[in-house]
Amino acid sequence: MKIAVLPGDGIGPEIVAQAVKVLEALRGDGLKIELEYAHLGGAGYDAAGDPFPPATEKLALASDAVLLGAVGGYQYDTLPRPLRPEQGLLRIRKGLGLFANLRPAMVYPELVNASSLKPELVSGLDIMILRELTGDIYFGQPRGIRTLDNGERQGFDTMLYSESEIRRVAHVGFQIALKRNKKMCSVDKANVLDTSMFWREIVIDVAKEYPVIELSHMYVDNAAMQLVRAPKQFDVILTGNIFGDILSDEASMLTGSIGMLPSASLDAHNKGLYEPCHGSAPDIAGKDIANPLATILSVAMMMRYTFAREDIAQRIEAAVRKVLQQGLRTGDIYEAGMQKVGCTAMGDAVVNSL
Ligand code: IPM
Ligand code: MG
Q: How far apart are CA 293 and CA 329, in angstroms?
């Protein structure tokens, strides 16, 4: 298992350090795990003047999987856009062809009170959001800021999806639904956008190959509302890049803390980049208070999807469950009566319960 480790910025290095402890414990059990580090985001800019340095690209291309912390920091906000940390993230996704972004939103029974919704609305919640990750308005050309003949300035982007891009992510969605409750909701804005009308047409066509899956369609504004009204109606949500960006942040809050949610970004051959759904949280960086569980759970996803080791994935997930049952909580999921711990202590506890 050749894994590229990209700690990134902000809390990235501290949360990744905890996930690496988990990997090292697994290595102690006999797994052949090889770790190599590189820079991404602001760390890449600082080290090599590039948020996605060539050395990082080379390592990522040569690895089976990538473990990423997070990117971004206030000090980079004024850089020209190509040099900003987020560009490193977008380029590694595009460069590795990671078109299928899996963002599970599930509620742990131990954390049901941490949700901002009533416990009965979220208890038992288990949604898988599949976000297309290398197309849409994120990458469409042309884009830019231009000056019209009358002197008025204008910003513009292009939303577009090709048929092959929609087909391949739809297949991933149906395959995931087959292993779950066999329900998939495709989210679009087909009442307004041509791109979405086309998306829906192709998804309906791909669905013919999966007659056992119950496919539904929902406009994105309604989906945003349904997610907070009755989130348990969803099983798999399939959507494009920008709608998925927004809905996955919304869904994360149903679970109590974005600090609990892992993600996987896969190519066509299950090579993947694994990262927590949350950002680099520069305000709490270096204080040893960040929640490392999303990153640790990302390692579980790595074992499941890239290395086809469901057994190890479940072992890591069970270890996380156990520390929650023991009452250990980082600040973001803390409630009275629990034991507040920092990032390192949380990582140690997961390793112990492994
Ligand atoms: C995410 C983030 C990124 C995105 C940013 C940091 C570029 O919000 O992974 O959801 O928009 O995809
Ligand atoms: Mg986002």
A: 10
pLDDT tens sequence across 16-40: 999 999 999 999 888 999 999 999 9
pLDDT digits (tens, 9 = 90+) for 162-220: 999 999 999 999 999 999 999 999 999 999 999 999 999 999 999 999 999 999 999 99
- SS3 of residue 104 by DSSP: strand
Calculate how far, in angstroms, residue 245's C-alpha sits from the geometric centre of ligand 2: 4
Quick one: how far is CA 158 from the chain centroid? 24
The identity of residue 239, as a single letter, is: T
Place of tokens 């480790």: 5
Q: Which residues are near ligand 2, the ion (C-beta closer than 5 Å)?
A: 245
Smallest CA separation from ligand 1 atom 12, residue: 245
* CATH numbers and ranges of domains, the chain: 1-99+267-354 (3.40.718.10), 108-259 (3.40.718.10)
Q: Which of 307, 308, 303 is nearest to 319 (CA)?
A: 303
pTM: 0.94
CA dihedral of residues 77, 79, 82, 83 (deg, nearest 10): -90
Instruction: Using the mean position of ligand 1's atoms as its centre, give its distance from the Cα of residue 242 in Å.
Output: 9
In order of 216, 238, 346, the CA distances from 28 in angstroms are: 46, 38, 20
Query: H or E segment at 220?
Result: helix 220-229
Distance CA 95, CA 87 (A): 12
Q: Which residues contact 34 (CB under 8 A, 6 or more apart)?
A: 1, 2, 3
| Pairing outcome for strands 65-70 and 100-106 | unpaired
Torsion angles phi and psi, residue 284, rounded to 5: -115, 10
> Long-range contacts for 114-120 (Cβ within 8 Å, ≥24 apart)?
114/255, 114/256, 114/257, 114/333, 114/335, 115/253, 115/254, 115/255, 115/256, 116/253, 116/254, 116/256, 117/228, 117/231, 117/254
Active site residue 245: yes
